[in-house]
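Hi! If you just cloned this repository, the fastest way to understand the data is to look at a raw example. We've pasted two of them here, unedited. The first protein comes first, obviously.
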Amino acid sequence: MSKSISLLSALICTFIWGTTFIAQDTGMELIGPYVFNGIRFFAGLLALVPFFLIFESKKIIQEINKDKKYFVVNTFLVGLFLFGGTVFQQIALLYTDVANAAFFTIFYVPMVPIIIFFLYKFPIHWSIWPSVVICVVGGYFLTDFYDSTVRLGDLLVIIGALFWSLHIIFIGKIVQKFDIPIFVGIIQTFIVSFFSIILALIFEEFIFSNIFAQKIQILYAGVLSGGIAFVLQIYAQKNITPAPAAIIFSLEGVIATLAAWILLSQYLNINNIIGCSLILVGVLFSQLAPGFKKN
């Protein structure tokens, strides 16, 4: 798979993630975050099964046999990290707005290279560090955070960002060894759905009329984001290392802000435009700078 296909996968994935903030926010008008998350990812799982049967079912045994223990441990961790990221983000939307949630979510941008550098001693291209700074500053401009106090929702999103960063890192490890991205997607969506439903049974209640009333948001966040987008992420990271991948994914903050402006009529001011521009510059710099060689 060429890097251009990986970049396209990353951009499509990022677009879906960014617009999903709207579905996540409006999808909890009648149901709780655990119910929403559990059903959302179960829908994503069902959407992936036909693709798995068509494209990967014949090679799954061969791929897993490369290292069964490594596959089981790391796919479980990937699912656990995805569960942590999504559940904290979903709960946070009860206490904060879409712009703040999008901003604090992209804190995984600085977290990813820091974790990789200090935990694995993996060399990071110098262009990643200024790109990280530009993206975080751009994310700051996307929100009105500087006019408000830190809210519970913002703290929850930051905790979720740690799980997102670990998810990106461990996906990067898996795709380098196994070529079954759809099956990995099925496993992680099952884990998220399973643990979310357990929490829903404990803390919330399933009212099917309310669930059906939110079907559009659930299907969008589930089939497109919970299923297809996360598989596209795996395809994307096949040829893009975790640090620059995280920078590309930070565009979800831009898309979330634009989607909130278009769909929720949330005003897009000059600071928001500056923020979008800075993140775009950071993403482009991270991808183009490594291609320049010293004379």
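Ok, and the second one:
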Amino acid sequence: MKTLRVLFVTMLLGFFISVASGQTWRKALDPTYPSMSFNKVFFLNSTTGWVVGSTGLVMKTTNAGTTWTSSTTDASTTNYSVYFLDANTGFVSGGNRTYYKTTNGGTTWTPTVVSSIPDAAGIIRAIYFADTQRGWILSTLASTNGRILHTTDGGATWTLDLTVATNNMIDMSFSKANVGVATGKSAATLYYTSNGTTWNLAPTPSLGGFTYSRSDVRGVYMVDSATAYAVGWGTAAAGLQPSIHFKTTDAGATWTYLTQTEANRTYDNLYGVWFKDKNNGIAVGGANRGSVVVRTTDGGANWIQLSFPCGATLNSVHGFGNTVWIGGADGVLYLSSDFGTTWQLLTAIPSATLYALQFVGASTGYASGFDGIFLKTTNKGVSWKSSFIVANKLTPNVNGIYFVNENVGYVAHSYRMVTKTTDGGATWTMVLPDTITSTVSSAAVYFLDANNGFVAGQLSSSNSVIYKTTNGGSSWTSTAGTVAKSLRGVAFANANIGAVVGDGLTAAYTTNGGTTWTAASFVGVSGTPNLRSVVFLDATTAIAVGNTVVVKSTNGGATWNNIAAGAASLLYNVSKQNATTAFAVGSGEVWKTTNAGDSWTNIIDAGIVTGTLYSVSVNQNNYVWIGAASSTMFTNEPATAVDDRTPVPDRFIVDQNYPNPFNPSTTISFALPRTSAVSLKIYNLIGQEVASIVNGETLAAGNHQYSFKAFDLSSGIYFYRIVAGEFSQTKKMVLLQ
């Protein structure tokens, strides 16, 4: 009997050890509009509007953007333009020489292929209808041509009016029927019409005495029958070329370059422009250093850059009176009710790659990355709030973050910029200035405390730099050229011992707190793989990871030995749990060591954790969180263990089904900010309803989960659509039988 008890206890202990060491992954965060770029915004009045973008998406709001309903024209193509005559009749244009018409406000769409366009792959970039019969479209094929066509019979037939053979056309605007302007690949491609059928080429305007490598005119807007504004190319990378601003007061017959004072010049592409009247307008754009929004109140004589809380490229702007909406990359939508003085982010979670991730304290975590996106949780990852890191009107990409505590944090950006927050990310200040030179970058940051910290990066691809501050970023000293490659990672064991790693199998170490740095040596490593991240496990033991390589040092970073970890991809980041346990992530790989880096096991669940994984952090509960592309996060922290509370959300949330792909069961989760009548239904690819999970039931505010079992369905793509009052959202899922 005693032997049986011992056997039972041994088996039970083995069971608990097995469960404790196992990894159960889940997707913890999805973006609101995955991998979405909104290309055109159109508002009929101060509350009702539409926005279109990639994957054939069309979204409509009737409450100024508080909530949106979505529909799809063709998920395989991108929509570029939208125009509505009234609340019911509207048009959307896209690829494959196709536009779509709705007569019910966008609930359903009817496609029309314009065979008069000879290019089967032609993109209809702009569309305008003066009434139900008279309309115009602008089409282009890559950068080789442009065409303008018109119809007088509601689109039954189309007449080709203009063909531009050598330059593509980009945008078009009408003030009324027959009076319009069109812009193209250069300042030499400006056309106008006064009869709707004949398009005349305007003289090429001067470019203000500046030398331009190109002069794309990307956006145009007619304010009235005589006045129009156009915007376009700008860059700082190929010499200082100011953003282009043109104006016409004779319906496009001639254009004037609006030269800006040096203080007002921006050096980024402008993609969209809108005017509420002849004098007051807003133009939007952006590039690698963040979003750009400029405003004029004097008819374009002065364009003043506004402080705009975003880093994504902005594609379109439209409005009604003082109410303005902007759409752009990363699925961002913004609203201003005071003509651009203040802005509200309407997108709950923008879609951007998360290059950096860190948990601080018992409940607080931060994630950041592409376009300067910044996500914060204060409830252990139950929910995340979105913003962008903006300082001095700049928002370059974030490469690394380091928070000393829940309030004080530092961020390393491209273009050398380093920013600091003392209020948990609510506001940011620039503590290391930016540069316009794209080869100068800050790649990684590490702070010992609120005052003493280090930033590693490059002055060029063949020249490293290490910055040090002892006063919280008020001043910095720099050490350049320690290694002849770009530095990617920095970490310290204590106030004296630290290491940096970089491209071409380079590393350096310090034993005097960064006063001096010495190049490190490597043992047993084949080739010169790039190193991307480094972490100290104790005072002398460090691990660095990179391009299919893991190396370990036991002497403070002076010497690095190759570890045959088995990584098949570039490992972007490594994070420690304790002195013996660490995690590294890459493309479809999550590696774990429990013996201080001597051996590694890939613990990924490929059915859940997918794509390229860029960042990893271990929270105080010893659970792993991973950041990936499109604001996606994964974790092995159980959802029920994240927070004992079930807070009522402040918005509608529809999670991606889990698992996805699935066979044969999956779970659909969503959250309601208020009690609502809910419909949850499943549809196949051709829009047929195949299952009804919730059929108009009234559900309380809070979180809800439903299981869907697809025993009788064949493999393929399906959609689940949730409708709750005016809110609706559709997401895709994949069944693999």
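That's it. A detail worth noticing about the second one: Residues 12 and 18 are 10 Å apart (CA to CA).
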